[in-house]
Each structure stands twice: as structure tokens, then as C-alpha cells.
Design goal:
Blueprint (H helix, E strand, L loop, with lengths): L15 E9 L2 E8 L5 E2 L2 H14 L6 E3 L2 E3 L4 H7 L7 E6 L2 E6 L2
Antiparallel strand pairs: 1-2, 2-3, 4-5, 6-7
The chain binds zinc ion.
The site of zinc ion has 9 residues, from loops.
Length: 105
């Protein structure tokens, strides 16, 4: 889908212009950037391709029952990459069907 020149769905003030967005080092996809708020939007097709790319690179983990909650082990590659430590506190929330865990500053 072509969003070139269309109004920004994020701020409603700017217009979208085609760019090449680097989603991963050396991997560029077609995207549309707002001239006002600088938000970057992707077509549904590109979004599905990018999500499939991340899914292919992801490590699979099973949820573990802990009381009434479920726990998720974080792969050691991510522990090292982010410098995580045991008992470190994280914010856990959702965005659509995704789980977002953010390390507290
Ligand atoms: Zn905008």
C-alpha cells in the first residue's frame, strides 16, 4: 500500500513520505515517515515480513507455573546483551499480543 503524501495517522498534522528504514543492521524496508512528528509507519505487508523475520530469529521458551502466575526464562544471550542480574526489577506489560518487559532504570 502506498502512503506517500497521506496524512499521518499518529499526529494528524504531518504528511507521510517514503523512506528506507533500517530495521536491523543492513536490512532496509520501505517505510513512511511523518514530516511533523517523525513517526515511522509500515504497510501491513512490510510489518508482517519484519515480524516473521524477528520470529525466525527468536529463541523459543516455555512458560513455567509459579503460584498463580507464569514465569518466562530469559535466554542467556539476552541476559548478556542487556547486562541483566538476578532480582533485577522489570516492568511487564502488553502491546497487542506481545509481552513487553522493560528493565527499570
Ligand atoms: Zn505525524
Amino acid at each position: 500500500m502506498d502512503f506517500e503524501g497521506k496524512a499521518c495517522g499518529n499526529c494528524g498534522k504531518g504528511k507521510l513520505h517514503r523512506i528506507q528504514d533500517e530495521v536491523e543492521k543492513g536490512i532496509f524496508v520501505e517505510a513512511f515517515k511523518c514530516s511533523f512528528c517523525k513517526n515511522i509507519a509500515y504497510s501491513e505487508y512490510v510489518m508482517e515480513k519484519v515480524e516473521a523475520m524477528y520470529r525466525d530469529k527468536a529463541e523459543v521458551r516455555s512458560l513455567i507455573k509459579v503460584g498463580a502466575s507464569l514465569a518466562l526464562s530469559i535466554p542467556s544471550s539476552i541476559v548478556k546483551k542487556l547486562g541483566l542480574k538476578p532480582k533485577e526489577r522489570v516492568y511487564v506489560t502488553t502491546k497487542g499480543s506481545k509481552i513487553i518487559a522493560s528493565v527499570m532504570p
